[in-house]
Design goal:
- The chain has 212 residues and is mostly helical.
- It contains eleven helices and two strands, in the order ααααααααββααα.
- It has a single domain, classed as Rhomboid-like fold (Up-down Bundle).
- It starts with a helix and ends with a helix.
Amino acid sequence: MLTITIAIILLTCIISFTSFSNEKLMNDLIFYPPAITHHNQWYRFVTCGLIHADIAHLGFNMYSFYMFGEIIEEYFSKIYGEKGKVMFLILYVSALVVCLLPTYFNNKENYHYRSLGASGAVSAIVFAFIFLAPLQGIGLMFIPVHFPAFIFGIVYLIVSAYLANRGESHINHSAHFWGAVYGIIFLIVTCQFLSDFRPIDNFIFEIKSYFS
C-alpha cells in the first residue's frame, strides 16, 4: 500500500534528482525571500522542500522522514480517525511554510540568501512522534546509543536554537527549530478541536512514569 510518507519521499526524490542537473529548476523552486517579497512567489515556501543540495542532504532527510513518517501516519489514524491521513499531509505541508516564516522575515530583502530542503517539515514529524511517545528510544544515525525521545528532543531544540542564533552556518537551523516546535503545537491544537485525545496529558503521564 502506498502511504502518504512513501508518496512524499518518491515525489521529493524525483524532483531533487532532476534539479541536481537542472539549474533553472533549482532556481525556480528554491526558497529565495526577495522573489517572494517583490514577485509574490509564495509557492517557494513549499517547493523548496522538494529540492536538496546533494544526495547526502536528500538521503538524510528522506531516511529520517521514512523512519518516523509512517509511524506518525498510524498514530494520526488512531487519533483523528478517517481524517488521519489528511491531517498528516496538512502537518507536513504546513510545516514547510511555518518553519520558514522567521527566516523570511529576517531576509525579506537579502538577495544573497537561499534555502532548500525538507528539514523543517521532517523536524515537525519527528517532534510529533517525540510528543506522542516521549519514552521511546531515539538516537543519531551511525551512533549506537539511544536516549528517551524527550531527552533527545530537548537537546535538539537547545542545539538548534544556539546554532540559529550564531548564524555562522549554511544550514538553516532556524527552520529545524521552528519546524520542531510547530509539530508539537499542531498536534496540541488540532487534537483540541478534532479528537478526544489530549497529547499534553499523555505526555505528562509518560514523563511522570519515567521519573517515578
